[in-house]
Amino acid sequence: MKYFEKMRGNGQSPPQVSPAEVCWSWIGSFLGIAAVALIHYRLLDQLGLTMIIGSFGASAVLLYGAIRSPLAQPRNLLGGHILSAFIGVTAHLLLAEIPWLAAAVAVSSSIAVMHLTRTLHPPGGATALIAVTGGDSVYTLGYLYILMPVALGAAVMLVVALVVNNIPKTRKYPEFWW
Question: What is the pLDDT of residue 89?
Answer without folding.
Answer: 98
